[in-house]
Amino acid sequence: MDHTFDSDYWDRIWSGDRATAMRSSAPNPHLLAQAADLAPGSALDAGCGGGAEAIWLASRGWTVTAADIARTALDFGRERAATAGLGARVEWVQADLSTWQPEATYDLVTTHYAHPAIPQLEFYGRIATWVAPGGTLLIVGHLHPGQHDHTHRDEGHPPAEASATAAAITALLEPATWDVVTAEESQRTMTGPGGRERTIHDVVVRATRRP
Ligand SMILES: C[S@@+](CC[C@H](N)C(=O)[O-])C[C@H]1O[C@@H](n2cnc3c(N)ncnc32)[C@H](O)[C@@H]1O
């Protein structure tokens, strides 16, 4: 890794090619599948980027806090929510989630591919503490293709330190506190900028905090 995942890095990302791609980005399919049966309440999208997931949650009746370190991404999300008539349902918060502490807990804490400069599992452990009793934690993250097969060297994937396996994530969740509902690893094909297809390796962990 030849850079730090700090706010300058993420602002550069959101001001470059990614900005074009995120204008057409659809909400994450894992969120749609996992959150469809949840009763709306308060939600935090940790590392919300351009806001596709936060806006989808708002459209389903959730009151959403959308937090990200990159001002550029938040500005885009805010504008997009306003255009969708959902501006009042989403609060856009600029925060470094490796140090930020929310004032309240949430009925749903979700994150999609956020990887701050702190170790990935430490980040997941932090956001898990922000789930209210009876609430849901939904982690959608990168699974590095080499994580189970160390001979695998696939280019164009996020670095291994931004990834975690389902087993490593569920090991953070004490059985006395959490019911693990979903712990899956999967892959899907996505069409990126320029119509290029690429394979995305995902990890999805959904857990309910015991009341
Ligand atoms: C790979 S992008 C994913 C964005 C969005 N969730 C999505 O799925 O399209 C990772 C996001 O995490 C944000 N991020 C990285 N480090 C962060 C930190 N320390 N605090 C808050 N957000 C952070 C980045 O700005 C970026 O928007």
From TrEMBL:
Pfam name, any one: Methyltransf_25
Q: Which UniProt keywords apply?
A: Methyltransferase, Transferase
Record bears the keyword S-adenosyl-L-methionine: no
GO terms of biological process kind: methylation
Recorded GO MF terms: methyltransferase activity
Q: Where is the Methyltransferase domain?
A: 44-135
Under PANTHER family, the record lists: TRANS-ACONITATE 2-METHYLTRANSFERASE-RELATED (PTHR43861)
* Name of protein: SAM-dependent methyltransferase
Species of provenance? Nocardioides marmoribigeumensis
